[in-house]
């Protein structure tokens, strides 16, 4: 009985370790931005487009606030307006670097010990626009410091995403039409 218990614990531990490792990865053919400066990246970003997934389903007016903690972690506060439930929602998480802090390969967690890949794969020199890849080709975001993005940046980021292998026709273009966000006051 003790042997079965130990094998079960070992199997469970290896499974969890495998999930944690795989969730903090980056798609093939992708490199995260180098010479990355988290202090310049900190602040508010607006979601311009994303691949829809269950945690952001039905959300518009989405923004994210990145704040560097004293311990070197990045506090992430995501906010958005659920158009079905007709209410504002927010969720707080934490991000950490997957390796070198000068490389924009991070992992983020909103739900306990489970982390997902957050990889900045394109970023303008002024830190105004960012293209984010998740752990695989099912996760993609275009972010801006404002609620809009210039057409040339949009075209460039769509081209980069397509070269990586993303089906950009799946992108949900986020509306920013609410002015009553209680989290921004």
Overview of the molecule:
A hairpin with a 4-residue loop joins strand 3 and strand 4. The N terminus is likely disordered. The chain has one domain: Lipocalin (Beta Barrel). Strands 1-2-3-4-5-6-7-8 form an 8-stranded antiparallel beta barrel. It has 3 helices and 9 strands. The chain is an alpha+beta fold.
How would you sum up this structure in a few lines?
The protein has 185 residues and is an alpha+beta fold.
What are the salient characteristics of this protein?
9 strands, alpha+beta, single chain, disordered N terminus, 8-stranded antiparallel β-barrel
**CATH superfamily label:** Calycin beta-barrel core domain
Number of structurally distinct domains: 1
Q: What order do the strands of the largest sheet run in, or round the barrel if closed?
A: 1-2-3-4-5-6-7-8
SSE series: HHEEEEEEEEHE
pLDDT averaged over residues: 86
What's the N-to-C terminus distance? 58 Å
| CATH architectural grouping | Beta Barrel
Overall number of strands: 9
**How large, in whole angstroms, is the Cα Rg?**
18 Å
Uncertain residue ranges: 3-24
Portion of residues within helices? 10-25%
Q: What is the overall number of helices? A: 3
The structure class reads alpha+beta
Fold blueprint:
Layout: H1 2-23, H2 38-41, E1 43-51, E2 59-68, E3 74-82, E4 87-97, E5 105-111, E6 114-123, E7 129-133, E8 140-144, H3 151-164, E9 171-173
Antiparallel strand pairs: 1-2, 1-8, 1-9, 2-3, 3-4, 4-5, 5-6, 6-7, 7-8
């Amino acid at each position: 009985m003790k042997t079965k218990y130990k094998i079960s614990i070992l199997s469970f531990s290896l499974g969890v370790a495998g999930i944690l490792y795989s969730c903090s990865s980056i798609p093939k053919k992708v490199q995260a931005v180098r010479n990355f400066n988290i202090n310049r990246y900190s602040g508010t970003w607006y979601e311009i487009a994303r691949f829809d997934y269950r945690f952001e389903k039905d959300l518009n007016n989405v923004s994210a606030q990145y704040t560097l903690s004293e311990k070197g972690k990045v506090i992430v506060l995501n906010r958005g307006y659920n158009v079905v439930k007709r209410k504002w929602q927010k969720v707080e998480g934490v991000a950490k670097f997957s390796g070198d802090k000068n490389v924009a390969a991070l992992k983020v967690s909103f739900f306990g010990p489970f982390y997902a890949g957050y990889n900045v794969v394109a970023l303008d020199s002024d830190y105004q626009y960012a293209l984010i890849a998740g752990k695989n080709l099912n996760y993609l975001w275009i972010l801006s410091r404002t609620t809009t993005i210039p057409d040339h940046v949009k075209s460039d980021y769509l081209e980069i995403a397509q070269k990586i292998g993303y089906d950009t026709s799946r992108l949900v273009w986020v509306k920013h039409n609410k002015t009553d966000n209680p989290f921004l006051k």
